[in-house]
């Protein structure tokens, strides 16, 4: 199901001057200098937000490196399963929100103050509904996966996970939603393409805010859980009672009504995929504490790059064609693989940031003495290799997924990014854990917990 209100208003805004419809397809010769950003323009707008986002993931990694030793993380290891799913909220919700608002801004839908306010309030209430549902499902998935792997589950731990996840998801979504709206409005004011900056900013704040909230809330409830069980029950009840109110507000908003019903499949699917990455993380940190500090960095950077590319392609499609019709410049026998054109150029530019970016982040982590590892040449080489593999896979998937969703008449702003960030979590955590195992096999025992 598609968001028909967005389409109708989009058509009005784009054709008001000449009362013409968008072309059914955009040919290669139609793509002019006016519609294509220069390489310098892309790099100049992307690099700083990318580095800021990377530093945000480094901070999140450093925080996870510390809190993994907290009593609540040791006694309730199921929290590790929830970490990628909750950190993935920025991909499921905030990056998707950023991509939707970026597209709306580029299409001129936010030029009118009245529609601007409706778009903002509707999307904030929508992300709150989505956050509460995903938060509950993330805690449920953690309990189920723990039961499958260990054969037992604690009801008390389940209550702790549910309450912590609900509150964390709601507060993180609210904070990040406000930040995203501010970024979009400022980008519009200063004539900056929000596709290049909104999703990296979401990534930079997302991991750190979410992990800080999860750690603090879960630790607080754990210390009080057995003596003051009613606090957890009361908190969960209050949060759950807000859901019907937010649902009604979202349903009454013309810009989010359809999304309220059509956005669940990618969000829930992405949460399950991220939870599988969390299961790998749970097992990996039990043997390699160093995985904890690098996991948010690897996953965050990869998901960030994929989200920027997805947002750019989605805006291009909205501006050049109708939902379901792929521009002729992008069609061919290669199945939407990145083989030529403007999307190949932007993908290569984003890919070029991987090695220098991760070298900076590695240096910071090493300088601060975090990671429970000796930063040998072998370790750094393996680390850079897995990040290059991860981002290459994500960029290929990005191009294919965005065009496929568009062809299937599913708005990629709402469908592509959740899957991409979730795949980034699963592939990144898996490759990182595999790298630690391989390096240990090469007799670099400094990586194993001692």
Order of helices and strands: HHHHHHHHHHHHHHHH
**Multimerization state:** single chain
Which spans have pLDDT < 50 for at least 5 consecutive residues?
A: 1-35
- Structure classification: mainly alpha
Q: How is the main sheet built? A: none
Q: Which percent range fits the helix content?
A: over 70%
Number of helices: 16
Tell me the strand percentage band. under 5%
Q: If you average the pLDDT, what whole number results?
A: 81
Tally of separate domains: 1
Number of strands: 0
- State the end-to-end CA separation: 53 Å
Radius of gyration: 22 Å
What shape does the CA trace take? globular
Key traits:
450 residues; mainly alpha; 16 helices; 77% helix; globular; disordered N terminus; SLC41A/MgtE integral membrane domain-containing protein; membrane
Topology:
Layout: H1 4-15, H2 39-67, H3 71-75, H4 78-87, H5 89-106, H6 113-150, H7 155-189, H8 194-225, H9 229-251, H10 259-262, H11 264-287, H12 290-320, H13 341-351, H14 354-367, H15 377-407, H16 412-441
Structure write-up:
It is a single chain. The protein is an all-alpha fold and 450 residues long. The protein has one domain (26-447). It has helices at 4-15, 39-67, 71-75, 78-87, 89-106, 113-150, 155-189, 194-225, 229-251, 259-262, 264-287, 290-320, 341-351, 354-367, 377-407, 412-441. Helix 5 (89-106) packs antiparallel against helix 8 (194-225) and helix 6 packs antiparallel against helix 7.
């Amino acid at each position: 199901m598609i968001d028909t209100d967005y389409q109708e208003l989009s058509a009005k805004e784009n054709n008001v001057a000449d009362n013409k419809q968008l072309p059914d397809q955009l040919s290669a010769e139609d793509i002019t200098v006016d519609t294509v950003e220069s390489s310098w323009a892309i790099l100049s707008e992307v690099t700083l937000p990318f580095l800021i986002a990377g530093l945000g993931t480094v901070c999140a990694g450093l925080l996870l490196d510390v809190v993994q030793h907290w009593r609540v993380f040791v006694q309730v290891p199921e929290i590790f399963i929830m970490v990628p799913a909750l950190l993935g909220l920025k991909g499921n919700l905030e990056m998707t929100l950023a991509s939707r608002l970026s597209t709306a801004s580029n299409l001129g839908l936010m030029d009118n103050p009245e529609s601007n306010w409706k778009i903002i309030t509707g999307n904030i209430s929508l992300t709150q509904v989505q956050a509460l549902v995903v938060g509950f499902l993330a805690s449920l998935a953690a309990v189920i996966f723990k039961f499958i792997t260990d054969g037992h589950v604690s009801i008390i731990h389940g209550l702790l996970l549910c309450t912590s996840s609900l509150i964390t998801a709601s507060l993180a979504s609210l904070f990040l939603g406000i930040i995203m709206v501010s970024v979009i409005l400022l980008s519009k004011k200063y004539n900056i393409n929000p596709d290049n900056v909104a999703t990296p900013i979401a990534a930079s704040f997302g991991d750190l805010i979410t992990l800080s909230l999860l750690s603090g809330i879960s630790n607080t409830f754990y210390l009080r859980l057995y003596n003051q069980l009613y606090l957890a029950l009361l908190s969960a009840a209050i949060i759950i009672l807000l859901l019907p109110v937010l649902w009604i507000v979202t349903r009454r908003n013309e810009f989010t009504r359809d999304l309220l019903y059509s956005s669940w499949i990618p969000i829930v699917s992405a949460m399950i995929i991220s939870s599988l990455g969390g299961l790998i993380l749970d097992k990996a940190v039990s043997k390699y504490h160093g995985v904890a500090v690098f996991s948010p960095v690897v996953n965050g950077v990869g998901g960030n790059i994929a989200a920027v590319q997805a947002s750019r392609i989605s805006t291009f499609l909205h501006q050049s064609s109708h939902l379901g019709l792929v521009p002729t410049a992008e069609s061919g026998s290669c199945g939407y693989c990145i083989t030529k054109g403007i999307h190949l150029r932007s993908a290569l530019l984003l890919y070029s940031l991987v090695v220098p970016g991760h070298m900076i982040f590695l240096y910071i982590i090493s300088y601060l003495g975090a990671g429970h590892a000796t930063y040998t040449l072998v370790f750094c080489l393996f680390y850079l290799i897995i990040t290059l593999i991860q981002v290459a896979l994500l960029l290929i998937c990005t191009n294919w997924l965005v065009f496929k969703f568009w062809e299937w008449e599913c708005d990629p702003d709402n469908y592509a990014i959740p899957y991409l960030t979730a795949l980034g979590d699963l592939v990144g955590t898996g490759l990182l854990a595999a790298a630690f195992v391989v390096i240990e096999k090469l007799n670099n025992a400094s990586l194993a917990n001692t």
